[in-house]
Amino acid sequence: MIRPAREIDEHTPWQEMTPGGEIYEPATARYVNTGAWRTDTPLLDGEKCRSCLLCVPYCPDSSLPVQEGKLAGIDYQHCKGCGICAQVCPFGAITMKEGGQP
Asked: pLDDT means per 10 residues in the chain (102 residues)?
């Protein structure tokens, strides 16, 4: 029996995984905490943020959630700390801090 992606973890026997580790269903990234290997961390300064949302389309990990037309923070579970958001923010509202923890 092949398991759905949400049921696959480090204890899953290879016989129950998809061939080649392929994923046959969409939106499975939310099941994996990829932010754990971050070495630099973006910090959001809410005072400086104008919610222009220019950073959002640049984030390769979709780690900048938007709610009601405003930036709702940073999803540290998936952010890998690439720093692109800090580079494109025209207001300096996102800065990078050395280290993996916010």
From this structure: 77 82 67 84 96 95 94 94 96 94 84
